[in-house]
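Case study B.
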Amino acid sequence: MAEERVRVKALGTWGLHVRTPAYLRGKTGIVERRLGPYPNPEQLAYGLKAEALPVFRVRFTMAELWGAQAENPDDTLEAEIYAHWLEPADAA
Amino acid sequence: MPHDDPFEHTGMSPSGHPYRPDQDGPLTRFQAMEIAIRELLIEKGVTTEAEIAAAIAYMDTRSPAGGARVVARAWTDPEFRARLLADGSAAVLEMGFPIEALKLIVVENTPRLHNVVVCTLCSCYPRNLLGLPPDWYKQRAYRSRVVREPRRVLAEFGLTLPEGIQVRVHDSTADQRYIVLPMRPEGTEGWSEEDLAALVTRDCMIGVAVPRRPQ
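Model:
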């Protein structure tokens, strides 16, 4: 199966409750597995009706996350990202 | 020294730690709210004191010994190991560990891959298998450094990994919880599950250590 490449949207969040760490925003990785659906924590946190969203475990290389500063470029990191924070990696 | 004598516990104790004042102040707002809501729930028959005591007793039973039993079983029962890696929550439920609100993913160390777990956003942790997280797991130093320089952090824990092993950091950012299934130490063939479980520490299941056979 072809790897599905995705990019974490580089959105600002102005102090709101989100579960997408800042260090992953704008970074590209591959989908390790698909999970969910789970309720959107950005709505749950404020007592709103929460939309059920797919969640993706995305694998990043340390080279992608930290560039030339990476401790070991081939080491990897995986995190769970809700669908609305992801876009296809070929998107402009 | 009895603590109801007029002696003022100020400055440093004989063991070299500062005395802390007794908690004689008024309840905080949240302490008062918790007591009020708990008493109301009991008064209205929603729950009982016995149920609350039982829930606290259950929480106190959770400890890394639970996770260690799961690891030892996976080392000795290949079919269980396969089920554990495929669906961690269902596999640990077989052993009587309730699935709490969040699902379990078990990540397996191999000769080529070492896993380590963090929650950079807060302190998410597989409490049903490991109990309460250690203080360092919740501190900013661990949370911010292990995603950036995991090898240096692991070395500070006493675990130096060779170049040929890939490090994979798992950031528990959402709805899953993670434990590491470490590699079974060499020279433990034929050991009982109980003896194997004794080698599996909390740190091994977070991924900042690996189990070692006693020399």
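Residues 29-60 of chain B form one domain. The remaining cases will be described in the next quarterly update.
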